[in-house]
Every structure is written in structure tokens, then in C-alpha cells.
């Protein structure tokens, strides 16, 4: 599901506007099987996923983008260190490794 352009700059965790530059982006690599099954058709889009008990919007970078070339399969835009830490904790609880980038 494609999100409105306004939501491209919304924190995935708390829903506040992301006004700080550089902003925090938590990146995550996911298993190839999940990527093929769920994200192949979503490249370059914003989609909602379950993270713990919460539905959060994530970016799915195009396969030729710089961030994808660095190993990111999905990205979580965060407005603050608090929200970034919450996302990273939920990823860890789910068995994924978070890769942090500032943009």
C-alpha cells in the first residue's frame, strides 16, 4: 500500500513529523525468502508492516539504490533517539539486526 507523500517524513514509531536533518533511519536486512515473498513488488514504496504489536510504515528501497547496495532491505524513519531505540529494540526482539544510518 502506497502512502501519501506527506507520510514520507513521518516518524514510523510515534507518528510525529520528522523535522530534524540529518534524521535517523534504521535499516534492516531481511532473509531472502521474506524479501522475495513480501517485498519484491514493493520496491521504491512505503508499506506497513507489523513490528512487535505495532503497525509501522517502512520504506522499501529500490534494488539499485545506494542504501540497498549497502544491505538495507527496509528502512524505518525516526524522529528522535527515543523512537530509534524503540525500533531497534523491537527489531532485536524479532531476531533482526538493525543497521543505523543518518541521512
Give an overview of the whole structure:
The chain has about 100 residues and is an alpha+beta fold. The chain has one domain (about 5-100). Helix content is about 25%, strand content about 30%. It has helices spanning about 30-40, 65-70, 80-95; strands at about 25-30, 45-50, 55-60, 75-80, 100. The strands form two sheets. Strands 4-1-5 form a three-stranded antiparallel beta sheet, with helices on one face. A hairpin with a 2-residue loop joins strand 2 (about 45-50) and strand 3. The longest helix has 13 residues, at about 80-95. The chain is globular and about 30 Å long.
Overview in brief:
The protein is 24% helix and 28% strand.
Relevant terms:
single chain; 103 residues; alpha+beta; three-stranded antiparallel β-sheet; two-stranded antiparallel sheet; 3 helices; 5 strands; 28% strand
Topology overview:
Blueprint: E1 24-28, H1 32-39, E2 45-51, E3 54-60, H2 66-69, E4 74-78, H3 81-93, E5 98-102
Antiparallel strand pairs: 1-4, 1-5, 2-3
Query: How are the strands of the largest sheet arranged?
Result: 4-1-5
Radius of gyration: 12 Å
The largest sheet is: 3 strands, antiparallel
Query: What is the percent of helical residues?
Result: 10-25%
End-to-end CA span: 24 Å
Poorly predicted runs: none
Query: Treating each run of at least 4 consecutive H or I residues as one helix, how many helices?
Result: 3
Q: Average pLDDT across residues?
A: 81
Shape: globular
Write the element-wise H/E pattern from the N-terminal end onward. EHEEHEHE
Number of domains: 1
- Given the helix and strand composition, which structural class is it? alpha+beta
Amino acid at each position: 500500500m502506497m502512502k501519501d507523500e506527506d507520510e514520507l517524513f513521518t516518524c514510523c514509531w510515534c507518528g510525529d513529523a520528522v523535522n530534524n536533518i540529518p534524521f535517523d533511519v534504521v535499516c534492516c536486512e531481511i532473509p531472502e525468502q521474506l524479501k522475495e515473498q513480501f517485498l519484491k513488488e514493493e520496491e521504491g514504496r512505503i508499506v506497513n508492516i507489523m513490528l512487535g504489536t505495532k503497525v509501522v510504515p517502512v520504506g522499501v528501497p529500490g534494488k539499485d539504490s545506494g542504501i540497498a547496495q549497502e544491505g538495507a532491505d527496509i528502512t524505518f524513519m525516526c524522529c528522535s533517539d527515543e523512537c530509534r531505540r524503540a525500533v531497534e529494540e523491537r527489531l532485536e526482539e524479532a531476531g533482526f539486526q538493525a543497521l543505523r544510518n543518518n541521512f
